Amino acid sequence: MNSERLNIAYIGGGSCNFGWKLIPELANTDLCAMVKLYDTDKTCALANEVIGNNIHDRGNTRGDIVYLACDEAEEALRDADFVILAFEPGTLDEQVSQLHLPETYGIFQTGGENSGLSSVIRALKIMPLCAEYSHMIEHLCPNAWVINLCTPMAECMTVLHNEFTEMKLVGASSDTFAARELIASMVCEKKEISGVRRRDIKTNVMGISGFSWFDDITYEGESLMPMFREYAEKYGDSGYEFRINEYKSNPDADGHRVKFDLFLRFGLIPAVIDRCAAEFCPPWYTKDTKEMAAWKFSPVTVNYRKKMLGDKTSKVKKYMNGDVLPKSADATEVPEMIRALCGGGNLISAVSLPNRGQVENLPAGAIVETNALISRDSVRAVCAGRLPDSIAGLSVRHVYNRAAVVKAFEERDLDIAFNAFLNDPLMTCGLTEATELYREMLSGIRTHLLYYCE
Amino acid sequence: MNSERLNIAYIGGGSCNFGWKLIPELANTDLCAMVKLYDTDKTCALANEVIGNNIHDRGNTRGDIVYLACDEAEEALRDADFVILAFEPGTLDEQVSQLHLPETYGIFQTGGENSGLSSVIRALKIMPLCAEYSHMIEHLCPNAWVINLCTPMAECMTVLHNEFTEMKLVGASSDTFAARELIASMVCEKKEISGVRRRDIKTNVMGISGFSWFDDITYEGESLMPMFREYAEKYGDSGYEFRINEYKSNPDADGHRVKFDLFLRFGLIPAVIDRCAAEFCPPWYTKDTKEMAAWKFSPVTVNYRKKMLGDKTSKVKKYMNGDVLPKSADATEVPEMIRALCGGGNLISAVSLPNRGQVENLPAGAIVETNALISRDSVRAVCAGRLPDSIAGLSVRHVYNRAAVVKAFEERDLDIAFNAFLNDPLMTCGLTEATELYREMLSGIRTHLLYYCE
Amino acid sequence: MNSERLNIAYIGGGSCNFGWKLIPELANTDLCAMVKLYDTDKTCALANEVIGNNIHDRGNTRGDIVYLACDEAEEALRDADFVILAFEPGTLDEQVSQLHLPETYGIFQTGGENSGLSSVIRALKIMPLCAEYSHMIEHLCPNAWVINLCTPMAECMTVLHNEFTEMKLVGASSDTFAARELIASMVCEKKEISGVRRRDIKTNVMGISGFSWFDDITYEGESLMPMFREYAEKYGDSGYEFRINEYKSNPDADGHRVKFDLFLRFGLIPAVIDRCAAEFCPPWYTKDTKEMAAWKFSPVTVNYRKKMLGDKTSKVKKYMNGDVLPKSADATEVPEMIRALCGGGNLISAVSLPNRGQVENLPAGAIVETNALISRDSVRAVCAGRLPDSIAGLSVRHVYNRAAVVKAFEERDLDIAFNAFLNDPLMTCGLTEATELYREMLSGIRTHLLYYCE
Amino acid sequence: MNSERLNIAYIGGGSCNFGWKLIPELANTDLCAMVKLYDTDKTCALANEVIGNNIHDRGNTRGDIVYLACDEAEEALRDADFVILAFEPGTLDEQVSQLHLPETYGIFQTGGENSGLSSVIRALKIMPLCAEYSHMIEHLCPNAWVINLCTPMAECMTVLHNEFTEMKLVGASSDTFAARELIASMVCEKKEISGVRRRDIKTNVMGISGFSWFDDITYEGESLMPMFREYAEKYGDSGYEFRINEYKSNPDADGHRVKFDLFLRFGLIPAVIDRCAAEFCPPWYTKDTKEMAAWKFSPVTVNYRKKMLGDKTSKVKKYMNGDVLPKSADATEVPEMIRALCGGGNLISAVSLPNRGQVENLPAGAIVETNALISRDSVRAVCAGRLPDSIAGLSVRHVYNRAAVVKAFEERDLDIAFNAFLNDPLMTCGLTEATELYREMLSGIRTHLLYYCE
Questions:
Q1: Which residues on C lie below 8 Å from D395 (Cβ)?
Q2: Residue D147 has what DSSP assignment?
Q3: Candidate from C397, C427, C430 with C-beta closest to D291
Q4: Rounded to whole angstroms, how far apart are CA atoms C152 and C429?
Q5: How much is the pLDDT for C15?
Q6: How far is A57 from chain D, CA to nearest CA, in Å?
Q7: What are the two backbone dihedrals, phi and then psi, of residue C69, each rounded to the nearest 5 degrees?
Q8: What would the pLDDT profile of A70-87 be if each residue is shown by its tens digit?
Q9: What spatial distance separates the first Cα and last Cα of chain C, rounded to whole Å?
Q10: What's the pLDDT band for B62 if we cut at 50, 70, 90?
Q11: What's the farthest any 2 CA atoms get from each other in chain D?
Q12: Which residues of B lie closer than 8 Å to C, measured between beta carbons?
């Protein structure tokens, strides 16, 4: 394993969300790296520089990681060995039309980033930026490994790849973490033990990016599929809640009823949280707020996002003044991925990649999530098998929708994206209303649509 | 071309619908055949025997076709050279729940046979019968060519094939006829000529069975795509009606607005009538009766079907008493297909076959409609090309739904079919209501579901 | 069908070979065209101009075809509606090394143009020219239909396509004609009738270009496969000769023993003459001249080609002086193809196209021969089915070899083509000798290899 | 990981070859197992029982493995958790015709088991036995993992699978070990270090079974491809020998010239020893014994095999009398595979499996070798990528040949296997001689061909 100082460019993520998970994790590895931070909001990048270097200065870390905020993206990217893409254009206020306007047409979204009408809007905003970064990477660090965290994952990865086809690109997400944590809890409860962690739960995962499934889960060499069935059957109606009614105020907590229902219906375990899974389906679980409540989950709202942002902002000063960012033991697997790519041993991790056969019955080229064998300078998908036909049927429409969204970008033609919008599973309007709704939603982000007018 | 008398088994179709088109057409070919008629309603078969032989007895026909009603299907099938399957189980009264019950849940169907919630119900009824016929054909006439007219076409063909994999099977439908007639009319109007017939319009057709598209239409070696675009742009909003407002009372007449809209949106011309195309899409055109009216088409209702049946029944006596069934010049292409299969020259005709590459971007094995080269003892699909991604996206979900319906048959498990029901594009209910609706619709045909209880 | 005068560019073919077949055939159609002739040997083009116009001037023809020899290829190509490519670089003397040098290494070729070591050499010579024409066509007549007759067919078509991907390209060959004529003769003999022509024999054809097979042959709606088996079994050992021992002096005559052997071994009928089929196989039939004689065919030699050329040259003056070129009723199907592409009705004809599924078990993109439906501005392959595994196994190696030859062109790297040379089925040398042989053969055409040195 | 005593059935291998590698290895794991030995030669099985239990009795081992020789295969297989198939029918004397008869026809084989004319003969002998074991496994231990070591690997695995499609089957071979050991040696030499072992060399491997390739090799996170190129260029002509001229007497030693030549020609490193790689190619390296000697390898002969067998037999008594079988540290990876399949952690190992996309450009279903992720009750191939076209071209013909050999088994028709024989790359005879040779070779094993006469 290379022992020189690595150059890691970290683009976006200034809003603390992902950065604050990554910083303590990196400190905890044996990597030696310079992390160059770039965010359109320089204040954020600077804050993260200070917070990151604080940890380093205290010593008592395994890694040797220094942070530097950059004025320009080019500065961060030049000669990078790794690029982490974690940006998101637009303001929370702009998300109002994206998330809530459809409600006036009787369409309820759950806030997911990879499906729903909002994901089309989101993609239209972010794809031109992805293309710009792709070109910069081609010129400034063509050999870098690019770890994408931007969403919608599929559209971003496809654009990144299409614009620089030689890019070494892998998508990382924490989508599957909650499901594995749920299973770890079940193991503890069932076996009356403690200390089982997410990473102790081994899975075979497959599906389109954002809507993936487990068909095999084990703990210490024992299959947990029978245990999961037991829970699903027992708690399918009532839900299985860690904290009763938490789901009402926390969209990331849920009663797992959607997971149980999909499992009992289709045979595989959804690898994502309930509100995300729900949004990939027709309005079975999201018909209206009552239906959602019955299924024991609540949607992400702009108000909720604002509250979360407020909480974080208030902590920035504290950490800048010297409080050490608390460890969040395994909030991401990005440091392990970097380590493995540097030659630090094999890693099996769930990632997003273009399908080259790892999911047999999804179209070639679709961005899919499966395990991969990550080793020195290589990421190779593990053949995950076939999705049951019924799940493939639910998934493939998204593949085509995503392709239409990407094509809208390529041809700078918003009408093409409208076809994806129309064909989203949540769309229940007639054509007239759907047309209106699309116009209004585009209007809400019009400052981001200059690219499409050229 | 073989000159011995052919044995043609004609199963079902007693309700006059298809038979009355075929009888005069057969008379008009140079075929020499014995047509054995079998229908569960023997009266119908007998009526057709008389009506068919009446034509023969008058002479003045090219063909030498005699008709014989049979008491048992086996009798009709034994040693058949050709088998025409045209049966439909159940009564019109039973169709009330199939066609109209979903309206109470806010779901409006248009009466199509190949899509919509009703097609799931329809398939559940007919698949066990298909399997029975498949077995009989295997034993009584394994070398016969089987021309399927039963619907839903895809499910019927898949079951017929799965149960007797060596069956020489081809699906014939008149789905594309109306669209070609429309185009023929446009040509007459535009060129100020008359006498252009459906068969003068050459097309390249592709798509899943029931939802096929033209990407190339010609008349006397001239492309008509520009002409069609002209009409679509001119009449897209107003509709293009042969008889103003006829669509209000006749579900087979329409203003072609759906066709124009889909063409302008996706680039290909739907090869089916508007209400059928509409039913393959999300509720864009079928949100409610008002939306349908705005698009200038009306759904088929049970009342309408009863009226049609009444009209026909009243004519039976007339034809039995000697009136000659009028020619309907080219209402089907079945006689030409039989002729070509006997070695009477090459025929290019649009048929349904399992996809083996003729539509590049639909799954292998899906029942698709394309042109085929039909010649002595062979039907070979013509490579039709690729569907645009957006149309493929609309189509593939149906492929998976149809697969689920067939699997429900194979595993005698109605829950599997429910997944197709849930995932039908018209389904806009939450899961609770959808479950109720399915139960009620099954209840409406419970006498046909014995097979699934074994 | 368009009634204006068509522009047809005819490139090469000056050596009379193909031109003399085409000229009387064109005269016999109802086409109205200007044929612009270009050949690097202007004398040839001029001779054909005179000979072609002679026919026209005599009247008594259906078509209205005038000929004009051009000084430059560009002149012939500008605004062409159809382009016929029929050129072949190099002299007969140069063919000595190509055809006969391997004999000194114990390798006997039969003179075929689509396989054998010589085809690699042939391809290396012609591919740069194909690329030039491709570029000219792109600029001068991008909408023209290009009918390729140059060989090796697969390499030429792939280069033509790769260099101008929008080219409307179809490969026409007379490869299958002799086999159909043989079958027509068998029918006459067997049925004691006369006048059965090649075009009366309907076939389903499939295989890689140059090595295609019939799995279905009919005459007037009757399968001839049983008849062919009878002949194969009866004449498999003795051969079936029209004129006893003609094969000894005429490489285009043969005893059909190879065809019979391959048919009995693999189940399909080779659609090409024996010496061509033999050359696609390991040295089963071509081990040495004795083996070839035992199988009743003889190879094409340079001496034979010179003699043929001499014969033709001596006739040129005669035809230029007014003798009318005799009809060779259906020596090609090019005029029919042109007619069909102009909208003059459907044509089913065997052509070479990139595989898009028409032969199920050959790789996508490989140039394959199957029937196609040719109609106004479109050529669509007919799905021909699957080759038996054993034939696919014999064929696929050629697909890869051809790909290597094309790659050698693209990368201007003769070493890449050496891999195809090494892997040709006739290659029985050790690596040392093979290397020597390749160098010597390249040396024989070194004046044509400038392109590879740039 | 399951802690009960495992049942492992070990079928064949009595000739000490593989068993003597496995026994000490098993002793060295932490497995607890009963190994039931069955061999048609009961003496051998008994010897292995004693030798195996000797090790156990001495203690000082990590594992707890007991051995039991069985009278019947059924006894060994009943309720097995793992089945190791390592049998080989026939005597060494019978191998004379298989290995040496072709020499009289000018065809030189190298003794490989997975290619060459001999592999066809070998397959014909062993396939009926594979089918028998398949049926026994289906009835006696359907849930067992079957680890196949029988050759020819592809044919054996295909038959095993076809006869019991639910079998959990994986092919293990030591094919790639020597190449990795070579690379380990180069690393030691180059870096002037010692102790680098085979397992420290990480590779990406892909290809058909028996003819696989590395496109990526690393040691401690450093790519070794540049180092290998250096060696190939330096030693391509002279060879790189551990012990000068050892290759003359030891067919498992070689000068690596074939590997270097194939690497320089095609870009990937052959993962097998030279004589095996040579036999998958046309007679480039095997034209005659002189050519082989020039490439610095020698073929396996029956005499050599007899000598090896003699050596081993003489040692049996010694080990039975108490001498402990020496460790051969990592002669196989079978114990690790068993451990991983029991849930003892993830293992990445090169195995043979049917292709489901792990090698993109080899046909689906072909038995291919790639890395796999082996974990509790699952073996999942790692997507290895695409072979270069030229290597795919060399490989695919074997896929078809192997399919023909399997078909010969299924249809009990030796003529079908003859097509594979004819199409083997080493075949340079004309058809007449080839036919003779095949008959003679079959005659040499006629006692094993009863199955084909039923």
A1: none
A2: E
A3: C430
A4: 23
A5: 56
A6: 29
A7: -80, 135
A8: 999 999 999 999 999 999
A9: 47
A10: confident
A11: 62
A12: 1-2, 202, 204, 216, 218, 220-223, 342-344, 346, 348, 356-358, 360, 371, 373, 375-378, 380-385
* Strand positions, DSSP E, B265-346: 269-270
Do C and A make contact, counting contact as 3+ CB pairs within 8 angstroms? no
What the block records as the tokens of A183 is 């299973």
pLDDT of residue B108: 96
User: Which token pair is A256?
Assistant: 């797992």
Enumerate the residues of chain B whose CB falls inside 8 A of the CB of residue C357: 356-358, 360, 383
Find the residue in A nearest to D379 (Cα).
A383
CA distance C89 to chain D (A): 27
Using a CB-CB cut-off of 8 Å, the residues of chain C touching B348 are 346, 373
In SS3 terms, D290-328 reads as HHHHHCCCCCCCHHHHHHHHHHHHHHHHHHHCCCCCCCC
For residue B433, the chain A residues in CB contact (below 8 A) are 287
- Local confidence band at A225 (pLDDT 50, 70, 90 cut-offs): very high
Identify any residues that bridge with A376 across adjacent strands, giving them in sequence order: none
With beta carbons under 8 A apart, name residues in chain B contacting A423: 282, 390, 393-394
CB A398 within 8 A of CB A211: yes
Among A259, A262, A419, the strongest candidate for a mutation testing the B interface, having the largest count of B CBs within 10 A, is: A419
Q: Residue A202 — very low, low, confident or very high, per pLDDT cuts 50/70/90?
A: very high
* Residue D385 φ/ψ region, left for φ over 0, alpha for ψ in the -120 to 50 degree band, beta for the rest: left
Beta bridge partners of D223: D218
Task: Measure the CA–CA gap between B118 and B96, rounded to whole angstroms.
Answer: 10
Whether the predicted pLDDT of C254 surpasses 60: yes
pLDDT at B146: 98
d(CA C256, CA C179): 9
Distances A20 to A14, A16, A198, A315 between C-alpha atoms, Å: 9, 5, 19, 11
B202 with C382: Cβ contact below 8 A: no
pLDDT at C331 over 80: no
Cα(D293)–Cα(D285) distance, integer angstroms: 9
Q: What percent of chain D has pLDDT over 70?
A: 98
Distance CA D306, CA D302 (A): 6
Contact at CB, C384 and B380, closer than 8 angstroms: yes
pLDDT digits (tens, 9 = 90+) for A91-113: 899 899 999 999 999 999 998 78
pLDDT at D130: 98
For D107, the closest chain C residue by CA position comes to C428
Phi-psi region of A392 (alpha: psi -120 to 50; beta: other; left: phi over 0): alpha
State yes or no: pLDDT of D183 exceeds 90: yes
Q: Which residues pair with C218 in a beta bridge?
A: C202, C223
The pTM (predicted TM-score) of the whole model is: 0.93
Beta strands at A347-354 and A367-375: parallel, antiparallel or unpaired: antiparallel
Could you identify the residue written with the tokens 């990681």? A65
Asked if B367 and B248 count as a contact pair (C-beta separation under 8 A), the reply is: no
Kindly tell me if the per-residue pLDDT of B316 is higher than 90.
no
Contact exists between B and C (3 or more beta carbon pairs < 8 Å): yes
d(Cα B442, Cα A141) in Å, to the nearest integer?
A: 61
Q: Which chain C residues touch D433 with a CB distance below 8 Å? A: 287
Query: Using CB atoms, which residue from D218, D346, D357 is nearest to A356?
Result: D357
The residues with which A214 forms a beta bridge, in sequence order, are A205, A269
* Mean pLDDT over each residue of chain A, to the nearest integer: 93
Q: Do A223 and D356 lie within an 8 Å CB cutoff?
A: no
Mean pLDDT confidence for A359-368: 96
- In chain A, residues with a C-beta closer than 8 Å to the C-beta of D380 are 204, 371, 382-385
Residue B115 is which amino acid?
S
CA separation, residue C241 to residues A336, C231, C296, C297, C300 (Å): 75, 12, 9, 10, 18
Task: Please give the ipTM for the structure prediction.
Answer: 0.91
Partner-chain contact A221 D358, CB within 8 Å: no
